[in-house]
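Throughout our pipeline, every protein is held as a single compact record rather than as scattered files. Such a record has a labelled line for the sequence and another for the backbone structure tokens. The remainder of this section carries one protein's record, kept here as part of the documentation:
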Amino acid sequence: MNVSLTPNSELEQSIVSVPDLVQVPEEFISRAHQFQEIMMMYTCAIREVKTKLEVLNDELSVRNSRNPIEMIKSRVKKPISIVEKLQRRGLEVSLDSVVANLDDVAGIRIICSFLDDIYAVADMLVRQDDIRVIAVKDYIKNPKPNGYRSYHMIVEIPVFFSDRKEPMRVEVQIRTIAMDFWASLDHQLKYKKELDNAAEIGEELKQCADVIAETDKKMLEIRQQIESQGIRVRGD
């Protein structure tokens, strides 16, 4: 469906700029304000989870003299990505379908120093009584065929607005610094399929993933050896 209009907001501009190969439903444009409100709600959900993580990190920094979380990144999916994912799954492209079917519109990535920090942070987060775990995928213990490693959770958290409380879902990814560095390069490769040696580079990346996994394991063992002698490994 071809829709012609003059964009009057950043949201509408981003929707209208979607390539022709992706059909943008008229509902997304005609209900731009509602779409914007939904995106705001997901942004607030991210803020709620980030606050919990920052509190945990501050507490552990004082208790253990070490920050398990090095960095927290977040994002809300762009309209084009939302439309493409719904179409790829053969789902209805509508605002209701976004809320009902997509669990990763809001995303948080937690970068940790050591492997055991990943599981400790995940456990502390889900033990909070207002967090409901929807799904868990452990790609550290069960890596993807290409070597990808990370700990994924879909969690639901209540977000309080002026007139109501809404349960909002957020995808949480937890990985080490090395895993995150690897994933960034692998992500770039996925959009460079025209490379003549893409398969060869993919295999080299797989080998790097295996080396990184061993390095992460070794770094944890070294830290534990140091701490076993009563010396606490301090954070920044």
Remarks:
- The first helix runs from residue 10 to 16.
- The helical segments are 10-16, 26-30, 32-64, 79-88, 95-101, 115-126, 177-190, 198-228.
- The mean pLDDT is 85.
- The two ends are 54 Å apart (CA to CA).
